[in-house]
Amino acid sequence: MGVRATRGGGVEIDWGVGSYEPTGELLAPVSEAVVELAGPLAGRTVLDVGCGTGNAALAAAARGAVATGVDPASRLLTVARERAAAQNLTVDFLAGDAASIPVGDQSVDVVLSVFGVIFAPDAAAAIAELTRVVAPDGRIVVTAWPPGGSMSVVNAAAAKFMGEVFGQPNTSASQEPSRAGTPKPLAWHDPEALGAAFAPYGFAVEVNRKSLVFESASAEEYLERSATHPMAVSADRALSQRPDADELRAELWSRLLAAALSVNEDPDGYRFTADYTIATARRS
What's in the keyword line of the UniProt record (predicted)? Predict the structure, then answer.
C-alpha cells in the first residue's frame, strides 16, 4: 500500500494511491538543482531516499552515477523503473523507508532526499539511517518546504481543516507538534534544528534557500490537477467516512481555493513562487 507517514490532521497518507506523477513532473527541477549541488557524480554511488517516481535517482544516473532509489510505495517504484527503462538508464529501485534503508553501512557517496524524508514519521530514526549509510567523506542533501512559503500556505490550509474535522493538531511535513506516543518531529527546513539533530553523529549542516515557480490557467485548475495527489486522495478517503462528507469536501475546497488565491502573483492567470530549502550535511 505504501503508507509512508501520518500528516495533515492525523490522516494517514498512502503514497501508493492516486497519481503522484503530475506532481513529480512539477518538482523535477528541484531534483535537478539538488543533483547539481551535490557536485560531480560520475562513478559515485548515489542513494535517493523517498524516491517516488525516481526524479533524483534518474538525474544522478544521467550524470554517470551508480544510482539507487528507495521508496515504500510499490506503485511508485514501478513507475520509476519504467522511466529508467525508457531513458536507457540503469538504476536499482528498492522497497524500503527512511527508518530502515536497505543498503550497507557507509556504502553511499551521496544521499539525496527531495521532499521525501521530511515525511518520515520518526525523524530521529531517519537521521540515524541517513548518517549510517553515507560514506565517511560523503554528503546528505535534503529538501523541505519552509513554513510561511507559498506552498506551505496551501498545505497548511488543508492540514488545519483536516485537523479540525478529525480532532488532531494542525500539521505539516516540516513542522508538526508532538503527540503522546509519537516521535518528536523535526523542522527539516531549520538550520538550528537540523544542526542539533545531526551533531550527535558528527555532522555539520548548511541550509540554502531556493524557489520554484508553479503556473496554471487558474487557481481552480491548479487545485483540480492536485486532486489526484496521494495526500488529496488520502484526505478524501478519510472524509468519505463521514456522514457529512459532501459538505466537508465543499468547505475544504473553499479553504484551499482561498489559500491558493492568497499566494497568486498573476492577475491574468495563476502563478506562485514557492521557496524551498536544501540542507547539506557533511561530517565535521
Answer: Methyltransferase, Transferase
Of 177, 150, 174, nearest in space to 10 by CA: 177
Tell me if the pTM is above 0.70.
yes
Question: What are 47's strand-pairing partners?
Answer: 68, 111
Which residues make Cβ contacts (< 8 Å) with residue 44, sequence separation at least 6? Answer: 65, 66, 109, 110
- In the chain, what is the straight-line distance between the N-terminal and C-terminal CA atoms, in Å? 39
Amino acid at 78: T
pLDDT at residue 246 tops 90: yes
The position carrying cell 494517514 is: 12
The x, y and z cell numbers of residue 216, run together, are 496554471
The three cell numbers of residue 161 are 481543516
Q: CA 230, CA 251: separation in Å to the nearest integer? A: 20
Report the distance separating Cα 139 and Cα 112, nearest Å.
9
**181 contacts 152 by C-beta, under 8 angstroms:** no
* Mean pLDDT, residues 84-108 taken together: 97
Residue 269 to residues 31, 153, 217: CA-CA distances in angstroms?
26, 19, 5
Q: What is the arrangement of strands in the sheet containing 108-114, beginning at the earlier edge strand? A: 91-95, 66-71, 45-49, 108-114, 134-144, 270-283, 203-216
The DSSP secondary-structure symbol of 50 reads T
Residues facing residue 277 across a β-bridge: 144, 209
- For the 3-283 domain, the top CATH level (class) is alpha beta
